[in-house]
């Protein structure tokens, strides 16, 4: 599916990037646009190879096919760098460029694998190791996606956001305020830097990390976070109802603005939630918060959709309320959990209240319903006693896989869900570290944070680890 860019959803104007001086000068007759293809000695394409000019400026990074385009002059020396291969320096000359046509040509480059002499050690198969090996920093938060890894680092004297390749090559770094400790990836694949009161969208332009205009965190939560899925045809918005005992996934057609309920997830607590809302809460604090924080109407207005009570009075209740601001601890209400995800041109809704996995096409057409039971681990269907499931589903969009997370005594077990049958097809135990945090999976590799016992600046260090899943 075509990757779309969102600049803080639809509420911030699109900002055009000004082409860098290098690319403008590339139009001159003395500059060549060189299509570079990098491979190893066997001809295997190498992705994430960083290419630098003589001034140590990053001018290109190869994609999954080992390809990128750079601008350079005849006689320029350029450097090819990859964490697993020997660094190579080449001078642009007529001898190493191919198919030169006007100012465009090709260059083939091969790299030699690094040879490391290691002391004798026991080799442990499938063992976790540091995903970021700088032992002088604290990893506050991270996100792994197709582009690479975004990390917020803290070394007590400096707070920074860095962007890495999957092989730990640092592609860009930016200093940030210490108050920014959270990262968020929206449905469009954009990365946002968050604090308690402000949000920035950040993006990598091939040379550096850029920050767009700051947005108030409440505005960010109201206008962007409800967008759970975007396809070529639809936006899918999430809204809670019935005192957080019901989740409505509402699809908005991107062409004609037509809205409909894609999925309505609720269990036996919905009626209790409705009664509780009407009899106890409606005229109190939540009703006041709703009037000040009309979340869903803002989105509808933003999309140019006429405001109608399409979904009934019961669906309007606490949809607009930020859960924290409504004093959820006071009412002792735990919201239901029925996540949605989108990959391989299919929308998946885990209706865990009805024990169903719902599948839709990217245009919102229902495909099938599959029975699921992995989240029920006791003989009583409605019992949570003894259930070790963490109410968390981890998605590996690169491989189109979903995992349910379970933990007991600090040890985490990941169970791969067969999306065709709804059953568990594989179980993986993370045995090396107890109480791992913020588990993510990308391209068959599990990442997680772990508090290391080694001291850094007088305190234990939170490190980022990774392990290949088998």
Q: First CA to last CA: what distance? A: 28 Å
Tell me, briefly, the overall form. Answer: globular
The number of E-state strands comes to 33
Mean pLDDT: 77
User: Strand portion, in percent?
Assistant: 35-45%
Helicity, as a percent range: under 10%
Number of helices: 6
Q: Stretches where pLDDT falls below 50 for ≥5 residues?
A: 1-29, 116-125, 284-331, 379-385
Q: Which radius of gyration do the C-alpha atoms yield?
A: 25 Å
Largest sheet: 5 strands, antiparallel
Structural class determined from secondary elements: mainly beta
Write a concise synopsis of the structure shown:
Helices cover 9% and strands 43% of the residues. The chain has six helices and 33 strands. β5 (77-82) and β6 form a beta hairpin.
Notes on the structure:
- The chain has 470 residues and is mostly beta strands.
- The chain has six helices and 33 strands.
- The protein has helices at 21-25, 217-223, 270-281, 285-292, 295-302, 328-331; strands at 32-40, 50-52, 58-61, 67-72, 77-82, 85-91, 98-101, 104-111, 129-130, 138-144, 149-154, 159-164, 170-175, 182-185, 191-194, 198-204, 209-211, 215-216, 227-230, 234-241, 246-253, 259-266, 340-343, 346-351, 356-361, 366-371, 389-396, 401-408, 411-417, 424-430, 437-442, 445-456, 459-468.
- The strands form eight sheets. Strands 14, 15, 16, 17 and 18 form a five-stranded antiparallel beta sheet that branches. Strands 4-1-8-7 form a four-stranded mixed beta sheet, with no helix packed on it. A four-stranded antiparallel beta sheet has the order 3-2-5-6, with no helix packed on it.
- β31 (437-442) and β32 (445-456) form a beta hairpin.
- The radius of gyration is 25 Å and the shape is globular.
- The relative contact order is 0.10.
- Residues 1-29, 116-125, 284-331 and 379-385 have low confidence and may be disordered.
